[in-house]
Amino acid sequence: MRSSRLLIKTKTKFTEVSPVRMPEARYLYPYKVSGYGFQLPGKDFCTLTPSVPLLNRSGDTLLDRISSLKLPVTTLPHRQISKKPDLPSGAHLNQFSFKKFFRLKALQFTETHACIKINIPIYLLRPTLNNHYSPEDIETPLVHINKRTGSFVIPSHGITGSWQDLELLINTWVKNRNLKKTQPKHEYPKLRTLSSHLDVKALERYQHYISIEELSSEDFDSLLSNLGLPESKYRAEQFVKLEAKVNDTLHDVIVPIRYLDGTLVGYRVLSSNSNQTSEYNYPTPVIKGLLPFPHGLAHASSIGADSCILVASLLDSISLTKKVKSPVITLPESGNLHPDHISFFDQFQDVIIWMNNDVQGSQNAKMFAEKIGVKKCRVIPSSFPNPASCIARNIKIKDALYAARSNYHQSLTSFEQLRDDVYLEFLQFDELMGVKLNRFDGLNNVLGGFRRGELTIFSGRTGSGKTTFLSEYSLDLCLQGVNTLWCSFEVKNTRLLRTMMKQFSLVNIDEEIEKFDTIADDFTKLPLYLTDFHGSQNIDLVVDAMSHAVYVHDITHVIIDNMQFMMGTSGGSFDRFQIQDLVIEKFRKFCTAHNCHVTLVIHPRKEDEDTLTTNSIFGGAKATQEADNVLLLQEERQDNSFFKKKSIEVVKNRYAGTHGKVNLIFCKPINTLSSKAFQTYKSKTGTPPPPTKPKTGHKPKNEDKSDSINIDNDNSKKISYEKFEEENVEDIIISSFEPFKN
């Protein structure tokens, strides 16, 4: 632009009588104008005040005229347009930031599939190990940093911590190196170590158990019978090699778990009860990380093995003992591989993953292979059951191991790679429809089951019981091993857990508070996790937390209650419909990328219609279009009654294509909506069904006397009609599937 065009006189566009007048700008400055001021090149932000006159002296340059104004200089924030995304307030951790930090600190590092490795001097761990190491010590322990979470592990000393802990340790080290000899050194932070001291109760329990070697042949056969194992297929040497012991009743087998250096860090218990076997870790750690530690990893590390077999249960490990040469490693939890354990698999060149041959086991095997490294992992095909079942069915273990194949292909695949998945489609068609619900059989008939990678939209009127239903729905899946993450922005976690504990136990804990500890101990074993979000949150922050939970805890079901709390923090000039479309798009991508099911609660529009439809969901059509399933919680007011009939209506089902309605019955003492839960509670407490609906419009026979029903048992109580939301006895019947008629 020419300098002669920098100064432009403007004329008024409107007459004096015009109600709208264009402001007369004397000059058009070639500087950044913002608000009521401008910014000179290389100067601070300047503000124009009305008391300073604008001079128009011909012959002066533009800079001379501006300098003659003697403008007051103030520091004001000014807005700038940027294409950078609005990231969460916390530091976003990724492998690029980790590598940049190490380069700035002049630290050399190496990489594996899941970790970044660095070496640090041993004297940095002096406060942590309580040992007197000097700077002359040449030992340099290897630190494994997870690329996704930033958490680190020092396997040689059992030390773990977060990225912030490691960052503080290295920064302190660099500061001490730059100090003079006469200056005092900064104290190194103390890190979290592996607790190797078991409580007295855990030690006494193992000591009081009987060694397998001391059992007679009759007692050993009774033990195998209690565990449901064929007597001719197992030998006592298989249990002795694992240092197993058994209790007096021959129903519980306990196996010690040791760390890499042989330190005892816990136990794995195999228990049989009512012809069913279960496994659990003892004692249960408060914070999951290195503990509970995988069983068999210490033995594999001590012999320097370069291959291993990863199984889901201790029973599978016992079945493979003395039958394979490679060491067998048992996961602490069958459905989760913690990131702190991934670094211990770097020593292996070949990892064979052998999970159950059901849908969940096949999906977990692929997920674990992606964590450890697809290139060095091989998965046993689903045509073979778990090792214990192979032994019982006389299936050769060698055949299953030879059939293990790698799923690694950079961009291409073939039928040979997908052959096992296609076979699974035919063999387990019902299971591939999803995890079946136990409390809501009607939803199984309509939806087919719970499937990963889908987006479900759930809607209902305010106060209709959306959170109550979803808590029982998610609890039903948790009881079947579906790792669940609850993101409740409206209801506090304590209130949500209070409801879920009553639904879990089918006990009115308000009146039987003495049972709280027993119920809480069982409730803790559920694979249930919660976020601490409350109120409006940024969508990017929520998705980042969800991604972290999927990687760390192998979450397969996320519940968002509700979407409206993520629509008020985006800012900008977008309207609410556009913001909602962006939120739906991000959740849809999350479901596909992480193979995770997301249940999203969206409030309906405030309308006067009696029943809800897909058009009743707030926002545009993108929500129902992107969703795989759309569920509506309907309320129907009945004549001559103040009760409302509740039902779940499936108006969209992309997988099966069937629509239908499932009736619900509300039991207020335990906050459940399933008919099965109500029937169980009624059988335990002797509570009769709700009163039937009056057909002729007259009052019930006992209404003129009292609004309660007397229970004829030892603990006679009065149950109010208000404790039951339903009024029709026919709704108790489970066959509540009502398909639509075209």
Summarize the structure.
The protein is built from 23 helices and 28 strands. A hairpin with a 5-residue loop joins strand 2 and strand 3 (45-47).
Can you give a write-up of this model?
- This protein has 742 residues and is an alpha/beta fold.
- The chain folds into 4 domains: 1-81, no CATH class; 95-193, no CATH class; 200-430, 3-Layer(aba) Sandwich (Dna Topoisomerase Vi A Subunit, Chain: A, domain 2); 441-663, P-loop containing nucleotide triphosphate hydrolases (Rossmann fold), CATH 3.40.50.300.
- It contains 23 helices and 28 strands.
- It has an 8-stranded mixed beta sheet. Strands 4-5-6-7-8-9 form a 6-stranded antiparallel beta sheet. A 5-stranded antiparallel beta sheet has the order 10-11-12-13-14.
- β25 (644-653) and β26 form a beta hairpin.
- α17 (466-478) crosses α18 (493-505) and α20 packs parallel to α21 (576-594).
- The termini are far apart.
- The model is unreliable at 1-57, 73-91 and 691-742 (pLDDT under 50).
